[in-house]
Design a protein that fits this description.
Layout lengths: L1 H8 L4 E3 H8 L4 H13 L8 H17 L9 H4 L2 E3 H19 L13 H20 L6 H17 L2 H21 L1
Antiparallel strand pairs: 1-2
Helix pairs in contact: 1-6, 3-4, 3-8, 4-7, 7-8, 7-9, 8-9
């Protein structure tokens, strides 16, 4: 998936949210949450407003899953938002070795946490994490912690790895603590 995103970054001067969504697929909740988490963990999270935009995307996407929509809808205004291609590609290339390393450890286990009611619970928790991102933006790079939780949720959903879902749930409590402390 990171390779597809890097290809999207190489296609022009800037990368829009829409092109990122097309690279990972509009119907899949896991890759979208993973993408948002990876961007939030990258140096891009230090750019003002990026964490807030990412939080809005997560709330919109996870909220739609919670209400039972089959396709994700994102407002055109958000879809048109863009990031310079060179910065986006550079951030993703930094994450590529880590992505390949993590891929070796993921496997289906404790799948009741990633399917059915478990997936619904993870969507609720993703909404909560997304809602914390704007306040976390007040302190530089603090939104990276929310990105870590979202990355774990996304990977857990993609690989149906319930063990990683438990890690993500623990990280969510840490993000909540940081959000309350930042206020």
């Amino acid at each position: 998936m990171l390779d597809r995103l890097i290809e999207a970054a190489d296609s022009g001067e800037s990368v829009t949210v829409e092109s990122m969504m097309e690279a990972v697929g509009r119907r899949s909740f896991g890759p979208i949450v993973l993408l948002v988490g990876l961007v939030a963990m990258s140096p891009l999270s230090g750019i003002p407003t990026i964490p807030s935009i990412l939080g809005i995307v997560v709330v919109l996407v996870a909220g739609q899953l919670l209400v039972g929509r089959k396709h994700f809808w994102i407002p055109k205004r958000l879809l048109r938002r863009s990031i310079p291609s060179d910065k986006f590609a550079k951030a993703l290339k930094v994450l590529l070795p880590a992505g390949r390393f993590v891929d070796r450890f993921l496997r289906p286990r404790l799948t009741f946490l990633t399917r059915g009611g478990g997936a619904y619970l993870m969507a609720v928790l993703c909404v909560l994490v997304g809602a914390t991102m704007p306040p976390l933006e007040l302190l530089p790079f603090l939104a990276t912690t929310a990105g870590a939780a979202l990355t774990a949720y996304g990977l857990a959903l993609i690989a149906h790895d319930g063990m990683l879902a438990l890690v993500a749930i623990g990280a969510t409590f840490g993000v909540g603590y940081l959000a309350v402390s930042a206020l």
